[in-house]
Design a protein that fits this description.
alpha+beta; Multidrug-efflux Transporter Regulator, Chain: A, Domain 2
């Protein structure tokens, strides 16, 4: 298939019916999403971690991390089908005991 044919396949999308978003694709609905999470980052060493990274940091099994975040024991945010964690919040959770 040459480029000329490929261009005919793509149709411009009418965005008039789509929800408007702010900068970085952050929805204005007030829901927590990766954009809001990134905006709240203030410390230089603050990283966004995956469940696997948190499990290594806390030396717990990854399934345990999922259980803890689902019942609200550790702070985390759902991003699509996965979870993300702010390193500073996880370390703060450890300091609280």
């Amino acid at each position: 298939m040459n480029n000329e044919v490929r261009w005919k396949i793509f149709v411009p999308v009418d965005e008039s019916g789509m929800a408007r978003s702010g900068h970085d694709g952050v929805a204005e609905s007030g829901t927590i999403n990766p954009g809001n999470m990134a905006e709240r980052r203030t410390e230089d060493d603050d990283e966004i971690l995956t469940a696997g990274q948190v499990s290594k940091l806390l030396k717990l099994h990854q399934r345990t991390i999922y259980k803890l975040v689902r019942n609200g024991t550790i702070p985390g945010r759902r991003v699509g089908k996965s979870w993300r964690f702010l390193k500073s919040e996880i370390l703060g959770f450890l300091k609280k005991g």
